[in-house]
Amino acid sequence: MLPTSGSTTRKLLLAFGALVALFTAASGFALARLADIHDGSHELREAGVRVREALELATAVRDQYAHLAHTIILGNASHVHFHEESRARVEELTRRLREQAQDAEERAWVADIQENGDALDRLYRETLLPAVLAKDHATVTSAHGRALERVSLIQARAEALARRFDTSIGSFEEHVAAVEHTSFRWALLLLGGATLFAVGVGIYIGNSVARPVARLSEGAARLAEGNLDTRIPEDDPGELGRLAAQFNRMTEALRTHQAQLVQHEKLASVGRLAAGVAHEINNPLGVILGYVRILQRKAEGALAEDLRVVEEEAVRCQQIVEGLLDLSRPGQGPVEQLPLRETCEDVVARLREAERLGHVQVRVAGAANVWAQPSRLRQVLLNLVKNAAEAAGNGGTVEVHIASSQDGGATVAVSDSGPGVKPEDRRRLFEPFFTTKSTGTGLGLAVSQAIAEAHGGRIEADTGPLGGARFTLRLPPVSTEREAMS
C-alpha cells in the first residue's frame, strides 16, 4: 500500500528517491542519453501504474462482490453504502484504464469491463437487493449466480490487462539496461552535485520532520507538567500535522474529562452529605412549619408578617433539602418510552397553569421518542423551561426544539430571548449552589445534569438562535440508555 499524499513517509521516500534519480541522471548525462533514460523511466512508471491499477480494479471488484454477498448473508440493506463506495472505486479505475489504453484490443477489454460493471451494478440494485429485502430466495440465488459470472469476467479482463502491461515493462527495462553500462564514466562528474543535493534533502527533512517532532515533544512536556491548555500548531500538511491535531484533540478531551471528574466528585460529595442528613433536617423543618402555621392562625399585624417570613424561609430550606436528595438519587426508578413532544407540551401546560410562565411565549417544535424515567425527565424539562422563561422575562420568547440525533438518540434544545449567560459563568452553571439569580437554591441545573447523566446523556449550554441562552438535553439511543439504566 502506497503512503498517502503529504505524509512524512512519502516525503522521506520522495527525498531519497530524488537522490537516487540524480545518480541515475548522472549516467544518462555522461553518454548524452538522458532523453532515452528519461523516456524509458517514464514509460516504466506509466506501465507500473497501469499494472497496479489493473490489479486494484480486480481487487475493487472483489470488494464490490463481498458487499453484495454480505447483503445476501445479512438479509438487509446495511451494506448498500459500502457497495456504492466499491462501485465508485471500480468506476474510477475503469476510467483510468480507458484513458491509458494503448491499442484497440486494450480499449475493447476496458469496454467489456465497463459493460459488465454496469450490468453488475444494475443486477444488484434492480434485482438482488429487492429480492433480498423481499426474502425471495429463488431470485436471490439466480441473481447471485449471474453476479458471480460478471465478477469473474471483469477479473479475467483486469488480469489480462495487467499481464499485457507487465510485458511492456519488461521491454522498457531491457532498453534502459542497454544504455546503462555505457554511462558509468560520467557518473563521477555529478557526485559533487549529488552531495549538494543531499545537503538540501537534509535541510528539507529537518524542516518537515525534525521541527514538527520538536514541537510535539515540547507540547508533550507541557502536558506532563499539567498544562491542559497546551496546543500544538497544526500547519504541517503531513501525518505529523495530523498527529498534532490528534494530540490537541486528546488534550481537549483530557481537559474536559478532568472537569467532568471534578464535577462528578462534587456531586458525589453533596449526594453523600444529603443522604446522611436530609431526613434529619426534614423532621425539625416539618415541626417548625407546623407550629408556624398554627401560630399564623392567631397572629395579627407585625407578628403575622414575621411568621410569614419564617414560613417562607423554612419552605426554602425544605426545597434545598429536596434538591440535595435529588442529587443523591438521580438514577432511581423504572424507565419507559416517552414521546418528547407530548411530554414537553404537558410541562409547558403545567407551568402555565401554575402561573410560572407569566407573559412569556413558549413554542414547542419537532418530535422524538426516548426511553427515560418519566418523573425524572419531566423534572429536567420543567427546570429548563422554567429557567428559560425567567431569563426571557415578560414579553419574551422561549423555543423548545425536539429532534432525533443521528446515533438514534434525541435532543431537546430550550432557547430563550433573554440576556444569555456570561462566558465566565458558563463553566460553573452545573455546579451545586451556583446561581446567577437573586433567588433560588442553585441546585436546579446541577440536579438536571445529574439526572441526564444517569440516563447516559448530558446537558450542554451555549448561545441560542433567539440571542439568549440555549440548554440542550442530549439523550442516548435505546440500547445505550438501557445499559446506562441497568
From TrEMBL:
The portions of this protein that span the membrane are 186-206
Q: Which InterPro entries match?
A: HAMP_dom, HATPase_C_sf, HATPase_dom, His_kinase_dom, HisK_dim/P_dom, HisK_dim/P_sf, Sig_transdc_His_kin-like_C
Q: What is its main location?
A: membrane
Compartment annotation: Membrane
Q: Per its UniProt record, what SUPFAM superfamilies does this chain match?
A: ATPase domain of HSP90 chaperone/DNA topoisomerase II/histidine kinase, HAMP domain-like, Homodimeric domain of signal transducing histidine kinase
Q: What class of enzyme is it?
A: transferase
Q: Which GO terms describe its molecular function?
A: phosphorelay sensor kinase activity
Q: Which residues form the Histidine kinase domain?
A: 276-479
Pfam families the UniProt entry points to: HAMP (PF00672), HATPase_c (PF02518), HisKA (PF00512)
Q: Which keywords does this chain's UniProt record carry?
A: Kinase, Membrane, Phosphoprotein, Transferase, Transmembrane, Transmembrane helix
Give the E.C. number(s).
2.7.13.3
Domain HAMP, by residue range, is: 207-259
> What is the reaction catalyzed?
ATP + protein L-histidine = ADP + protein N-phospho-L-histidine
In Swiss-Prot or TrEMBL terms, this protein is called histidine kinase
Lineage, highest ranks first: Bacteria, Pseudomonadati, Myxococcota, Myxococcia, Myxococcales
